[in-house]
């Protein structure tokens, strides 16, 4: 089995969307919540305003997984870091170290870019949590994830007294 990790290209957009949908199924998500399109991937990953990067794992030339990430910034470190949004490997090649290779590739990029850390979130029931522990990642018990979205996001935006621009 020849494994290769490479930077995704715009032509990979449909494959990336397929992996995102497969990940959503694994995460038991309502598929109506998954609205991403190949056009979104091209626009935001390969267009004028790139907001994410993506690496693909291939085995014998066939895409079998991906890792999607973007820059964040640590005010305490005074440096950018990397936030991993998604890491997914197709079930048929799990256990073949593909996830490790994807994570190691992002770690290498972080070191090359002088990023002090790589952050990510994992569902509490996900058996992959043990995989992340084996990588050396630690669970940040004292930090809780929050999200502002939908109607609440719009209501807060509408109530703001300042003009941004």
> What is the strand arrangement across the widest sheet?
1-2-3-4-5
Query: In the CATH hierarchy, what is the class?
Result: Alpha Beta
Q: What do we call the CATH homologous superfamily?
A: Gcn5-related N-acetyltransferase (GNAT)
One letter per element, helices H and strands E, the order comes to: EHHEEEHEHH
The mean pLDDT is: 93
Q: What's the architecture in CATH terms?
A: 3-Layer(aba) Sandwich
Indicate the radius of gyration in whole angstroms.
17 Å
Helix content: 25-40%
**What is the domain total for the residues?**
1
Low-pLDDT parts are: none
Task: Quote the CATH topology.
Answer: Aminopeptidase
What is the overall number of helices? 5
- Strand percentage lies at 15-25%
> How would a crystallographer describe the biggest sheet?
5 strands, mixed
Number of strands: 5
Measured distance between first and last alpha carbons: 52 Å
List the helices and strands and how they pair.
Elements (H helix, E strand, L loop, with lengths): L2 E5 L5 H14 L11 H9 L6 E7 L2 E13 L4 E11 L8 H15 L5 E3 L8 H7 L14 H10 L6
Parallel strand pairs: 4-5
Antiparallel strand pairs: 1-2, 2-3, 3-4
Helix pairs in contact: 1-2
């Amino acid at each position: 089995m020849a494994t290769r990790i490479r930077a995704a290209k715009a032509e990979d957009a449909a494959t990336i969307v397929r992996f995102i949908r497969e990940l959503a199924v694994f995460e038991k998500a309502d598929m109506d919540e998954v609205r991403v399109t190949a056009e979104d991937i091209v626009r935001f990953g390969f267009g004028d305003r790139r907001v994410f990067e993506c690496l693909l794992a291939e085995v014998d030339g066939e895409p079998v997984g991906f890792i999607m990430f973007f820059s964040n910034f640590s005010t305490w470190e005074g440096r950018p870091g990397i936030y991993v949004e998604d890491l997914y490997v197709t079930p048929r090649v799990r256990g073949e170290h593909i996830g490790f290779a994807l994570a190691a590739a992002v770690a290498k990029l972080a070191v090359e870019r002088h990023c002090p850390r790589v952050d990510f979130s994992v569902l509490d029931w996900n058996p992959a949590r043990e995989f992340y522990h084996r990588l050396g990642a630690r669970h940040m018990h004292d930090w809780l994830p929050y999200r502002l979205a939908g109607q609440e996001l719009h209501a807060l935006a509408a109530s703001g007294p300042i003009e941004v621009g």
